[in-house]
Design goal:
The complex is a heterodimer of chains A (about 425) and B (about 450). Chain A is an alpha+beta fold. Chain A has two domains: about 200 residues, Metalloenzyme, LuxS/M16 peptidase-like (Cytochrome Bc1 Complex, Chain A, domain 1, 2-Layer Sandwich); about 190 residues, Cytochrome Bc1 Complex, Chain A, domain 1 (2-Layer Sandwich), CATH 3.30.830.10. A six-stranded mixed sheet of chain A has the order 1-2-6-3-5-4, sandwiched between helices. In chain A, strands 7-11-8-10-9 form a five-stranded mixed sheet, with helices on both faces. In chain A, β4 and β5 form a beta hairpin. The relative contact order of chain A is 0.18. Chain B folds into two domains: about 200 residues, Metalloenzyme, LuxS/M16 peptidase-like (Cytochrome Bc1 Complex, Chain A, domain 1), CATH 3.30.830; about 190 residues, Metalloenzyme, LuxS/M16 peptidase-like (Cytochrome Bc1 Complex, Chain A, domain 1, 2-Layer Sandwich). Chain B is globular. Classes of the chains: A alpha+beta (about 425), B alpha+beta (about 450).
Chain lengths: ~425, ~450
């Protein structure tokens, strides 16, 4: 039996920039006859302007309602009848649109994305229809759902000082109701230019041919200046904050604990990723051990760095947040005492080398799962490539993630914990159960 | 301004025929099968133990005993407690994933390729020698009570439970949520006995997909499972097929939306009509460009995520349309859903509409199996329904043979709305009058 060597993460990455500023990233994987075509626009829930809350998300819906050469929902029809599947989503820093298709449909997929990059062609009736759909999305995900706004909307509203980070990206109903076709066109003109976008093609393709097709369909889309980037910065938090609110539909109380994290791309950011592994990922994690196994305060502790994804697919500022649902007879103080018992030692002394190796193994494995898996095959890798191109100007850095985690030492972890897991950087949000029996 | 494009829409060339990745099936000592699929370019291996022991095997009055067993499978093995077991798996990069349905309990993980044999060794240790610490019982039962309490506040859970109950009555498939008495009947002895009686070589399959050393994984499996007990072959009594139109409302005063489910029993996997029925489902409500979605979402704006699906167990399946609709249009939504069902029964779809759906269903089949987890899901489906590799190999061909008249025939044979229960979770005072036209509403 031959032992397998430890893997090296080596995703093929080819990068190009078209004359109109559109960045194109190509990645070949011939293992199955499918391809993911994804277009990322650098506008998301926190980049939309005041008075236009919910526009980034509403606009995502409108991009399925028609363009110059496709009627309402025709793009969906073309994807499906050629054997593919698709989706779009609005996150903090971007809005994406993607198809996973049999690879013979690459040409069509690029043509469709180019057609809608030229602009939506929609009617008032289509705008009204999608406004109703969005309102139903908000109802099913937030207002008609127990814990629907917990912790993400409730915590970000309180823990951030900057309006861009704190406001509800699903939008105020008043802003949604006020949206006109003129507003839609203005939003498109501001944010949907080629220079504000990244196109990724990942899967069973010849990259030379894919580039030729990308040039054919996208390069004559007129250039326009990208929008000015808003200031997203947050002040250093100097005092712990505590809040509570009532969820009228919840039957058991819940608690969320958030800390502001280090800036993206720094050694401390990767250290924070490992601290997330240490504290909240998997049943070997410290919070699971203390709160679930040892004290029986809850059945499960969630944790993560990005309410709408993971640590790699958002810009900072972000919050590391841990949350749990508990019983009525468990107090917030008892829960916080258990958190302290886990977190205080991390600020006191460095973790052992063997523990750090385990955290690195978990982080590496999580990265592989993201790349290999998911409901939309090849989208996981396309997403990583797109966000590193969009947020760090180099999709090739996807291949450095593993080394960045491996470079984190016990000393960097200690330093990071001392600054970012300090009590005065903590935000505590208690959900009171309005429907408790 | 929208910029005009001069590019005509490209034609899509025919899809080159593609084969699914090859399967290697080995029989281990004691008769347990191992199915291995080498696929992909990412150095990761997905590993799954499928044990034929599920909620349908739980005695009446002990609903969620299977869930207690799942919780207990997270409590370590005879030689390692919960924390030590989780740490050993995490050192390989693995997370423990325990899941289950009516017929199976699955123990899964995904690890970097080089750790695949060691992960198999650990999962075998867990399946053979789970710890079942009596001291954890109180905590785990409190966790289940909390889970039940939360499930009972979620309209989608209530709709699912109500629909299952309407379809299956007292049959095990109808028991979704336990009563307080059910939970009170659960204990560590019953959990341990359930597992030790059911789990064993004859009731367990090993499946792995991704990149890994196949021989080393088989060697780890032989060593890990050697000498395990046989395990009991599981059987579940057949359930009544007849259902009737009943309308049940689960009251949520003030709810902004009504969460609805409507559907009925249909052919199961292995039946001659099953593959064609999957096509029907994709056309009617099971895809974004399906009739019901185009109608109640894209035309009317009544809902965000309507979806129909086919849910199956061995020898059993049902079709269900689910949606969360604005309260004021609950009746209107049902009228449109029933109208779409009637339309398909009254006239066959056009050749063009069906051709698009056939391509979608065939393409989705190939796409779903382009990840290690997707491959394992398909292997598990085949195992559960007693199907073999010929099912996979002929699936796309069978899909492409479905005709418009066959779709209409299936709609007539299996989707008579008169036999469909309707479950509505919403504000009774606002919706009762809206739905009276569809049949008597239960008190």
């Amino acid at each position: 039996m031959t032992a397998m060597p430890a893997f090296a993460l080596d995703i093929p990455v080819e990068r190009h920039r078209l004359a109109n500023g559109l960045r194109v990233v190509l990645s070949e994987d011939r293992s199955a006859p499918i391809v993911c075509v994804a277009v990322y626009y650098h506008v998301g829930m926190r980049l939309e302007p005041p008075g236009r809350t919910g526009f980034a998300h509403l606009f995502e819906h409108l991009m399925f309602q028609g363009s110059q050469n496709m009627g309402k929902m025709e793009l969906v029809k073309l994807v499906q009848e050629n054997g593919g599947t698709l989706n779009g989503s609005t996150r903090y820093d971007f809005t994406n649109y993607f198809e996973v298709m049999p690879s013979n449909a690459l040409d069509l997929a690029l043509w469709m994305e180019a057609d809608r990059m030229r602009g939506p062609v929609i009617t008032q009736a289509e705008l009204d229809n999608q406004r109703d759909v969005v309102k139903n999305e908000i109802r099913v995900n937030v207002t008609n759902r127990p814990y629907g706004s917990f912790p993400w909307l409730e915590m970000q509203a309180r823990a951030y000082e900057n309006w861009h980070n704190s406001h509800n990206g699903y939008g105020d109903m008043a802003d949604l109701d006020a949206a006109s076709l003129e507003d839609v066109q203005a939003f498109f003109d501001s944010y949907y230019s080629p220079a504000n976008a990244v196109l990724v093609v990942a899967g069973d393709v010849d990259t030379g041919q894919a580039l030729d097709l990308a040039r054919r369909y996208f390069e004559d889309i007129p250039a326009a200046p990208p929008p000015a980037a808003p200031d997203l910065s947050e002040p250093r938090q100097e005092e712990e904050e505590r809040w509570s609110y009532v969820d009228p539909l919840a039957t058991r109380p819940a608690l969320a604990v958030s800390y502001h994290v280090p800036p993206r791309g720094t050694p401390e950011y990767y250290a924070m990723g490992l601290l997330n592994q240490a504290l909240a990922q998997g049943e070997d994690s410290l919070l699971h051990g203390e709160l679930v196994l040892k004290r029986g305060l809850t059945g499960e502790v969630d944790g993560g760095i990005n309410f709408l994804g993971h640590m790699h697919n958002a810009q900072t500022p972000l919050l590391w947040t841990s949350s749990l649902i508990h019983d009525q007879d468990v107090t917030v103080d008892a829960l916080l005492e258990a958190y302290d018992a886990v977190i205080d030692p991390l600020l006191d002394r460095p973790l052992g080398e063997d523990v750090v190796h385990r955290l690195q193994a978990k982080a590496r494995s999580g990265l592989l799962r993201t790349i290999a898996g998911g409901a939309y095959p090849r989208f996981g890798v396309a997403d990583l490539l797109a966000v590193f191109e969009l947020l760090e100007d180099d999709a090739g850095r996807v291949n450095e993630i593993d080394a960045r985690f491996a470079a984190v030492t016990p000393e960097v972890l200690l330093r990071t914990a001392q600054e970012y897991l300090r009590r005065s950087n903590r935000n505590v949000l208690a959900l009171e159960a309005g429907a408790a029996s | 301004m929208t910029q005009s494009s001069t590019h005509p829409r490209p034609e899509v060339p025919p899809l080159a025929s593609s084969a699914l990745p090859a399967r290697r099936v080995e029989t281990l000592p004691g008769g347990m099968t191992a199915t291995l699929v080498s696929a992909g370019v990412v150095p990761i291996a997905a590993i799954r133990l499928v044990v034929h022991a599920g909620s349908a095997h739980v005695p009446a009055g002990q609903t969620w005993l299977d869930r207690l067993v799942h919780e207990y499978l997270r409590e370590g093995t005879q030689s390692r407690d919960a924390e030590a077991f989780a740490s050993a798996l995490a050192a390989l990069g693995g997370r423990l994933d325990i899941d289950g349905d009516a017929h199976t309990t699955t123990i899964s993980t995904e690890v970097p390729s080089e750790h695949a044999p060691a992960a198999v060794t650990l999962l075998a240790e867990l399946a053979r020698t789970p710890r079942f610490p009596a001291g954890s019982a109180k905590r785990l039962l409190e966790d289940l009570e909390r889970t039940l309490d939360i499930a009972g506040s979620q309209p989608q859970w209530l709709a699912h439970a109500g629909f299952r109950q309407a379809l299956y009555g007292d049959h095990p498939y109808g028991r979704v949520l336990p009563t307080a008495e059910d939970l009170a009947a659960l204990n560590v002895d019953r959990a341990r006995a359930f597992w030790s009686e059911r789990a064993g070589l004859a009731s367990t399959r090993l499946m792995a997909a991704g990149l890994f050393d196949e021989d080393a994984v088989l060697q780890a499996a032989r060593a890990g499972f050697e000498g395990w007990s046989e395990g009991a072959a599981a059987s579940v009594p057949p359930s009544e097929v007849e259902t009737a139109r009943v309308i049940r409302i689960v009251d949520r005063p003030g709810a902004e939306q009504t969460t609805l489910q409507i559907g009925r029993r249909v052919p199961a996997p292995g039946h001659d009509d099953y593959v064609a029925f999957e096509v029907l489902n994709a056309l009617l409500g099971g895809s974004f460009y399906s009739r019901i979605t185009l109608n109640i979402r894209e035309d009317k704006g009544y809902t965000y995520s309507p979806r129909s699906s086919v849910s199956s167990r061995p020898g059993d399946a049902y079709w269900v349309q689910a949606a969360d609709v604005t309260t004021a249009v609950t009746g209107a939504s049902l009228r449109e859903i029933l109208g779409e069902i009637d339309r398909l029964r009254a006239e066959p779809p056009s050749e063009a509409e069906l051709a698009g759906i056939l391509n979608y269903v065939a393409g989705a089949f190939v796409i779903r199996q382009a990840t290690p987890g997707g491959i394992l899901n398909h292997l598990e489906f085949l195992d559960l329904h007693g199907l073999d590799a010929s099912y996979s190999a002929s699936y796309v061909t069978k899909v492409r043979e479905v005709t418009p008249s066959e779709v209409q025939r299936l709609a007539q044979a299996y989707l008579d709305p008169a036999g469909m229960p309707i479950i509505l979770v919403g504000d009774r005072s606002a919706i009762e009058a809206q739905v009276a036209e569809f049949g008597p509403v239960e008190e």
